[in-house]
Structures are given as C-alpha cells and as structure tokens.
Write a structure and sequence with these properties.
Cytidine Deaminase, domain 2, 11 strands, alpha/beta, about 290 residues
C-alpha cells in the first residue's frame, strides 16, 4: 500500500534529549547490593530512582530502591503497591526527593524496558532510565543513562527509542576505592582504613607529580599553556590553608585521633549488637 506524500517517519520532539544526569555513588552501591540479594530465578533487578531536578536542568539521582517484578518475553508485572509504599516511606524521611526515573541491571536496554519505561512515564514526565552492568565485564562497570523519544508514522505512534544522555559519575577518593573493590571479582580481604588512606595518598602524590611535570613543561616551552588549567591550579593552591609544619602535624594528629575514636566507638557498637542478638536468640530458645 502506497503512503501519501504527507506521511513521514519522525521522532516526537522532546526537550528530554537535552537532559543530563548526575548519579551519586550510594545509588550504584545500593543497586549492586540489590542485585546480589535478588531471588534465584531473577535475571535482573529493577527499581525506582529518587532525586531532584537541579536549576541547570540536570537530573540529580541521590537515592533508589528495588521494586519486585516478574517478566517474560512479552510482558512485565510490577508490584505497584510495593512501589508506592516505598515511595511514601522515603518521602517521610526526605520529602524533597521525588521520582526521577528507574534503573535496571544488565548491559544496555533490554526488550521489556519499553513497558517498564511506559509505567514510569505515567508517574513523571521524561523519566531517566539508568542501566548498571553488574557483571563488570572486562573489569569495568558500564553505567549509562537514557531517555525515551517516541517514533511515529504520521499520527500513529509506532515505538519508543531510547537515547543516551550525558551521565556524571563523579566520586571522591574514598568512594572510588570502594568502587574499584566492587569491580574486582576476587578479593582476598578488604583494605583497612589505614591501607585505604595509603592508597589515597599514593594517588595524591601521583597527581602532584603530574602537575609539577606539566608546570615545568610549560615554563620550559615544551607544552603550550592552557589558561583553564592554569586557573584551576591557581584556585587549588589558593584554597590551601597557610600552616606551619608544626601546625600541620598537629592537624593531622588531631584528625587521626578523631578517626581512631570513631573506629573504637563503632567497634563497641558492633559488639553490643552481637551480644544483644545472642541474648535474644537464647531467650527465644528458653
């Protein structure tokens, strides 16, 4: 059947394609934890993303929770009551956090993603779909964010196409150490706090050496100067406190003592919890 000259295949125009997203490390850790605790028959885990929309339009993803579901080749069933109850519980603690999208584990978008995305599209406009590769193929965890654009033929909507959007996964050093351990399939032991601090200091020294080398290359004319990098180095140096060596040593020692005190208190708390658990178990047996 021939199509008329006025019938064209087109994407529905949407401002969602101009979005960008920012995900906090806690969300990634929570998703990986839910994947480890998933039922034996489940191939992947899906859940709701919570956060807010920043003034510049960036979707700030700060929290998440898993939603029980069952899926087959042609249909997906979500526990909608559980989803709404969890949302109410989260908003009692963080009333400013709203639904910003949903997540799924696995590499890229799967067949049932369009059906789940349609449900979240009824919850909020332009939801973000976050995919987390919990298999960590090739030692790297692929994390991507998508939005959906409608593909239509004339007035008839045919399908929805997922389009990738920029995703910021910025982490501080302590979070990066934890994420690197998470990507490792076999771990002999978790590093202690002092070992983690040692790794962080080694990275810091390596970065300082790179800065020294860049400055020397610019001064000697081997590399052209970059004004943006120069301003960044200047702002970093200006933000450092002016301390004498004795004052710096005192600051480090005080911080170390505070850190050791926190470790001591946390150890006491864990011991009390274990004792309380054993006492409760003994009371139930009696």
């Amino acid at each position: 059947m021939a199509l008329s000259d006025n019938t064209v295949l087109q994407f529905a125009a949407s401002s969602a394609t101009n979005l960008s997203a920012k995900v906090h490390p806690l969300v990634i850790f929570n998703i990986c934890d839910c994947y480890v605790r998933r039922p034996d028959q489940a191939e992947r885990v899906i859940g709701t993303l919570l956060g807010s929309i920043l003034p510049d339009g960036t979707v700030d993803i700060r929290n998440s929770y898993a939603v029980p579901h069952n899926e087959s080749s042609d249909q997906v069933a979500l526990d909608i009551d559980y989803h709404h109850n969890m949302l109410l519980s989260h908003q009692k603690v963080n009333p400013k956090e709203v639904i910003v999208g949903w997540y799924s584990t696995g590499l890229g978008v799967s067949g049932g993603s369009a059906l789940i995305h349609e449900f979240y599209s009824r919850e909020i406009p332009n939801p973000v779909h976050l995919t987390v590769d919990t298999g960590f193929r090739n030692g790297d965890g692929t994390i991507k964010a998508y939005v959906s654009a409608n593909l239509s033929l004339g007035d008839r909507q045919l399908a929805a196409q997922f389009q990738e959007i920029p995703l910021d996964q910025r982490m501080v050093e302590a979070e990066q150490v934890g994420f690197d351990i998470l990507k490792t399939n076999m771990v002999d032991k978790l590093p202690s706090d002092l070992e983690g601090m040692e790794v962080t200091m080694e990275r810091l020294l390596a970065l300082i050496k790179d800065v020294y080398k860049y400055v020397d290359d610019v001064v000697e004319g081997r590399v052209g100067p970059d004004n943006e990098i120069g301003r960044f180095i200047s702002d970093t140096v200006a933000s450092l406190p002016k301390l004498s060596p004795a004052a710096f040593d005192k600051l480090v020692n005080d911080s170390m003592q505070d850190h050791l005190l926190l470790l001591y208190l946390s150890s006491i708390t864990r011991t009390q919890l274990r004792l309380a658990e054993k006492l409760n178990t003994a009371a139930q047996i009696l």
